[in-house]
Amino acid sequence: MTTAIAVRDVRKAYRRYGRRKSFGTLKSALLSGQLLSGLRPDEVLEALKGVSFDVPAGRSFGVIGRNGSGKSTLLKLIAGIGKPTTGTVDVHGRVSALIELGAGFHPEISGRENVFINGMMLGLSKREIVRRFDDIVAFAELEDFIDAPVKTYSSGMYMRLGFAVAINVDPDVLLVDEVLAVGDEAFTHKCFDKLAEFRRRGRTVLLVTHALDLVTRFCDEALWLDGGVVRDQGDPKRVVDAYLMDVSRVENEAMAREAVAIDISAHDAGPDGAAAGVQAGSQPDEPADMFRAVEGRWGTREAEIVGVELLGPDGAPAHVFQSGDALDVRMRVRAHQPLTDFVFGVAIFNADGVCCYGTNTSLEGAEPESLIGDGEVVMHLARLDLVDGTYKLDVAVHRQNGAPYDYHRLLHTFRVTSRFKDAGIYRPAHRWTFAGGIRVTGL
Amino acid sequence: MLDNLRRLFRYRALIQSLVARDLKARYRGSALGFVWSFVNPLLLLLIYSFVFTVVIERPPEDRLRPFALFMFCGILPWTWFQSSLLESSNVLIAGGNLIRKVLFPAEVLPMVSVLAGMVHFFLGLPILAAFFVYYGRPPLPVDLWWLPVIVLVQLSLTLGLALLVSSLTVHFRDLRDLLANLLTFWFFATPIIYAFDEAPEIVRPYLSLNPFTHLAIAYQEVLFLEGPFTQWRRLLALGAASIVVLAFGYFVFDRLRDTLAEEV
């Protein structure tokens, strides 16, 4: 099998002229006396740090990675719009890059003229455009508007025309950078059909995208770029999963940092409990409506929740969980004076502020007897059956009449990840069966 | 370099279409439309005629009469030169989106600016002809053969400078403002609203250093002044020099090519 794209140890460094870019005129540079120092690069930013890979002809290749990982830079180098600082990029055959649709359309002239100019920019000859013109217009669904100036087009029409021209260049290697989210559903489907047709005809497609399901569905191979280096390459499903795991890990760390900050503030309030309690009780930020999602902490602090931890199935504190995992919510509680009237409560809210579930020990029939000194409360959830998303937690210790000792409002965040992008809030454990004349694979 | 030229040749249809688009788009939506191509140089001429015949009563020598016509012979090509350079100083920055997102030879853009300016120049020629008919002084047909040569020399010079200016402004944006002022100075340092030999003796050598001086003199001699075209040696020398300028401009552009997409 021949190689369509060969990338060998490619590095790309961008020089950044901090001062010069921020002033940008001779006058201001002279005024600030930085004419010469401003011309020296402040820092060199390496977007790609030695990337090598091959794409065999006829394969669909997906490139994934966080923002700023070098994906678009890589695509531009392959398209020939930039040159690598070191290393080589070899591409065999005609390349068309869908980086920005309709770049170079002139608003004042008609769609028809723009098709010709855009097509020629992408490397078609006039005759080729004439031959494909009807296809392009039909694909863009702009038959009635093709002679109107492009400035009168809606943004969807503009994008459609741009896509139609670019795809009709009929390249051997098609580079796509996150541009398929244009137009309505029907047009998106048409774009995918066109890409699939490309694949069938044995053309090479390189796709840079954040739509991971697209990579697993459409690509033969995936490449994960992270900070300008290749982190992983191979089977799309495996690479995407590895990427998602890493995203979870990073999110986990970020949330852990936030949680530490909250714990520290809790400890700060701890030492002189009574005094703090009086002040805290008169805090004005206690919301009138408890179910309006406002962050904060209030209460008399006669008892305090000094630490909250979420424990995953392995018993270790975490902030990112798989949907369906077991979850323990552990609260460390400290009473500054012996109490006999206390209730522990937990509630889970989703990112929209909708209460997914809320309960407390009183609702479930617990009779408080005594709370003295330090203690620990754990709420065990056998399964966390929530859909993919970010959730926030309320935890509280309060009197049976509801008067709070310590109420943590939406202070604790965790994430639920799922391979499925199903809708709603609750993800009941379920399975599908099919009988009769129905055959389904993949479930 | 040769590969680049071959590629450029492949893109000739694009250049053609872009020039046509430039002309079409420029006046789209204005009431007078294409007429502006004629009106603009006429208005400029009107201003200078007013200044030099009404405000400053400057009795021109007989050979320079009618003076408006003499000035017009220089103003028309100067307008081409000036607008081409001003436009190309901005063309890469304005087309930045294109350069960053589409793979095509960027030198197409300044070339289009220069060629569109040339088309405007050609559109001005019929007006000039009409003036000659009106004043009843047709230029010598023998001399007229030189006109295409002069135009070619100017084209080569302008293209070279446009390539230079367009690629350098991407890196040194101050050039844009400098250029606007430089061109004003350049205009007055060129014998357009005065004749070369009207300038004081000591100034003339400096005027001769200005390449556009020779172009302006060539236009004036061929189109306006009586007698045969005498300055053809200078014109050919300038032609050779302008080819060097073009090669140098293209060389600089080519060297900066890879940095353009990053800097615009």
**Molecular shape of chain A:** elongated
Instruction: Please identify the oligomeric state.
Output: heterodimer
Largest sheet of chain A: 6 strands, mixed
Low-confidence stretches of chain B: none
Mean pLDDT of chain A: 82
How large is the count of helical segments of chain B?
12
Uncertain residue segments of chain A:
19-23, 34-38, 267-284
Mean pLDDT of chain B: 86
The string of secondary-structure elements of chain A, in order, is: EHHEEHEEHHHEHEHEEHHEEEEEEEEE
Description:
The complex is a heterodimer of chains A (443) and B (264). In chain A, α4 packs across α5. About 6% of the residues of chain A have low confidence. By secondary structure, chain A is an alpha/beta fold. In chain A, a hairpin with a 2-residue loop joins β8 and β9. Chain A is elongated. Chain B has one domain. In chain B, α6 runs antiparallel to α8 and α8 packs antiparallel against α11. Chain B is globular, with a radius of gyration of 19 Å. At the A-B interface, α4 of A face α2, α5, α9 and α12 of B.
Give structural attributes:
heterodimer, A: 443 residues, Rossmann fold, Coagulation Factor XIII, Chain A, domain 1, 2 domains, six-stranded mixed beta sheet, 10 helices, B: 264 residues
Helix-strand layout with pairing:
The complex is a heterodimer of chains A (443) and B (264).
Chain A: E1 3-16, H1 18-23, H2 26-31, E2 43-56, E3 60-64, H3 71-79, E4 86-91, E5 95-98, H4 111-121, H5 126-140, H6 155-167, E6 173-177, H7 185-200, E7 204-208, H8 212-218, E8 221-226, E9 229-234, H9 236-269, H10 273-281, E10 296-298, E11 303-311, E12 320-322, E13 327-335, E14 343-350, E15 355-360, E16 374-381, E17 389-398, E18 404-417
Parallel strand pairs in A: 3-7, 3-8, 5-6, 6-7, 12-18
Antiparallel strand pairs in A: 1-2, 1-4, 8-9, 10-18, 11-13, 13-16, 14-15, 14-17, 17-18
Helix pairs in contact in A: 4-5, 4-6, 5-6
Chain B: H1 2-10, H2 12-27, H3 35-55, H4 67-94, H5 96-101, H6 108-135, H7 141-144, H8 147-171, H9 174-188, H10 204-209, H11 211-223, H12 232-263
